[in-house]
Design a protein that fits this description.
Number of helices: 3
InterPro entries: DUF4440, NTF2-like_dom_sf
Structural class: alpha+beta
Strand order of the largest sheet: 2-1-6-5-4-3
Distance between the termini: 39 Å
CATH class: Alpha Beta
Mean pLDDT: 91
Protein name: DUF4440 domain-containing protein
Low-confidence stretches: none
Order of helices and strands: HHEEHEEEE
Number of strands: 6
CATH topology: Nuclear Transport Factor 2, Chain: A
Helix content: 25-40%
Organism: Polytolypa hystricis (strain UAMH7299)
Pfam families: DUF4440
């Protein structure tokens, strides 16, 4: 049986995959919002900091075709288990749309609520 830390790592990796599936979808804002804490921050290159309900909001900043990639891959993935209800995932992202490549360093901080669901507190990409 895997240790609790291994299960947390697996959960956080799954959450990060869910995030990238949402980010690269045709209409990312609703799916990304479901993954976020109400006070979450999303920090993307050359954009203002996005918040769930602030100005600018996720709905404003993640308008299609935001991050619409044909493919993506997470490399050099590291999961840091902060405690039983918090963790950070860091990685290199390689993505492509047509012939154009997107490469960035990224991290997401996740928090597990009383309901057992993991929600994102902060996501950041740096190119």
């Amino acid at each position: 049986m895997p240790s609790i830390h291994e299960r947390i790592r697996e959960d956080l990796l799954s959450c990060e995959q869910d995030l990238w599936t949402a980010i690269t979808s045709a209409n990312p804002a609703p799916a990304v919002k479901k993954l976020c804490l109400p006070e979450a921050n999303l920090i993307f290159p050359q954009m203002p900091i996005l918040t769930v309900e602030g100005n600018p909001s996720l709905n404003d900043g993640l308008q299609p075709p935001f991050h619409r990639f044909d493919s993506y891959r997470l490399n050099q993935v590291r999961v840091i288990v902060v405690n039983l209800t918090a963790g950070i995932v860091t990685y290199q992202i390689e993505a492509a749309r047509g012939g154009q490549a997107y490469n960035a360093t990224s991290s997401s901080t996740w928090s597990q609520g009383a309901d057992g669901e993991w929600r994102m507190a902060c996501h950041q990409e740096t190119i």
